[in-house]
Amino acid sequence: MIQQRANFDWMLKELADSVPGTRQVVVLSADGLRIARFGGEPDAADRIAAACAGLQSLASAVGTEFPDSDGRMRMVIIEISGGFFYLMAAGSGAYLAVLAEETVDAGLISNRMRDLVARIGAHLTSPPRRDGQAG
After folding, report:
1. What is the pLDDT of residue 64?
2. Residue 133: inside a domain
3. Which of 26, 47, 77, 131 has a 20 to 30 A CA-CA distance from 95?
4. Distance between CA atoms of 11 and 53, rounded to whole angstroms?
5. Mind listing the pLDDT tens digit for each residue in 101-125?
6. Whether the Cβ atoms of residue 118 and residue 102 lie closer than 8 Å to each other
7. Which residues, given as ranges, of the chain have pLDDT below 50?
8. How many domains is the chain partitioned into structurally?
């Protein structure tokens, strides 16, 4: 079960504050529901989380084309006019997404995301939902 959202606030803020150009950080479940966020508007975080469900599924499908791959998505980076989007697997059924400006240090944000996942990945687990309920 996901820890209380308040427990994630300081960790997501720490990630955003440690990398200049970070605009929004979102933790989401595999089915596209926002678990926690820092920065940006709640509605934007919900849209990002919903879009990520499709994106991680698409990335996993592409991953199966690699002969020695288990097909699980580890990280997706998208460069968009105006910035970058990062999506990283963060635990069983959970993901970490970051929206950043064009000026962001791409290597630094990737490393900080990996550090955060390593520190708290076991707590970023979202069980599958049944009939709209966790569990």
Report:
1. 86
2. no
3. 131
4. 22
5. 999 999 999 999 999 998 876 666 5
6. no
7. 1-6, 134-135
8. 1
Which residue is it, tokens 């962001």?
A: 104
100 near 86, Cβ under 8 Å? Answer: yes
Q: Which residues does residue 83 pair with via DSSP β-bridges, in sequence order?
A: 80, 101
Report pLDDT for 25. 96
List of residues 6+ apart from 26 with CB closer than 8 A: 34, 36, 37, 45, 48, 49, 52, 96, 97, 98, 99
107 found inside a domain: yes
The three-point CA angle 36-13-104 to 5° equals 110
Q: Is the pTM of this model over 0.90?
A: no
Tokens 């993901």 -> residue = 95
Which residues are bridge partners to 22 per DSSP?
100
